[in-house]
Amino acid sequence: MQQYELRENDSKVYYNSSKWKSNNCGEFTVIGKLNKYDLVNGRKKYRVYLCQFEDGTIVEAYFSAIHIGNVSNPNSPSVHDIGYIGEGQWKASTVETGKRKITKEYCAWSSMIQRCYSEKYQAKFPTYKECTVHERWHSFQNFCEDIQELENYQQWKDNDGWELDKDIKVTGNKVYSKNTCMFVLETVNTNEMNKRTEIDKLTGLVYMGISPTGEEYEFINQAEFARQHNLYQGSLNNCLNGRLKTHKGWTFKVKE
Hints:
Blueprint: E1 6-7, E2 19-21, E3 27-34, E4 38-40, E5 43-45, E6 48-53, E7 58-62, H1 63-68, E8 93-96, E9 99-102, H2 104-117, H3 119-124, E10 132-133, H4 140-147, H5 153-158, E11 162-165, E12 175-176, E13 182-185, H6 186-197, H7 199-203, E14 207-210, E15 216-219, H8 222-228, H9 233-241, E16 251-254
Parallel strand pairs: 10-12
Antiparallel strand pairs: 1-3, 2-3, 3-6, 4-5, 6-7, 8-9, 11-13, 14-15, 14-16
C-alpha cells in the first residue's frame, strides 16, 4: 500500500471494504481511493480506486469498470485456463498510430499455450498431445524475461521467419521451458521435423489444399506438396495452424 498515494474515500458506493464481483476473475474488495484525477469541465474528478482480489492481487480501476465488473486479475489464468499475464512491464498489446497491436511476445506465448492445452488444436495436430509448458512459463511475464536469454533471441525479435522450438535443442523433448527451448528459422524447424519424425505420415492426417482458382488437392506430406506447387512449407504449415489465412492464394485445412 505504501507505493500508492491515497486520498480520503468518501464515496457512498465505492467505499473502502465494499465488495464487488468481476466478470471473469471472482470477487474483489475496494481498499482505497487513489489520488489521481481527471479534469472534467475544469474540475478535478477523483475516480480511480484500488481493488484487491481474494488472492491478494491489487489493481487500479475506474469506478465505471467496477460497476460493470470489468476489473481483471492479472494473476488469474485467462489463456486456456493455464496461462496468465502476471504483473510486470510486459504487455499483451500496444497502441501504435491509434491502433491496438498484439505484441510479438504475446503471440509466441499464447501460441505455445494453445499447442499444449487446447483440445481443439490437438484434435487437428495430435503430435502436440502430452506436450506441456513449464509452470514458470504459465506466467507471461516470466516467459518474456526468460526468452531474452534463449539462443537466437535477437534474430527472432528483429526479424520474421523465426519461431520458438522445444525439441531441436533437446531431441524428443515435450516440455517448453527456458532450458529446452531456442529460436530457430521456420524453414530449419520444418526440415528438422520432417527428417526426425516424418510427422505428416505419423499423424495419419490427410490435408486439403484449395488453389487460387478453386481446385482441391488431397495430400499427406506437406513438404512434398509444397515442392510440387512452388509453395513454402513453413507458410503452408502456418495456414494449417491458423497463423495464416492464405499462402500465395492457397487455403489449407485438415480433411475431416
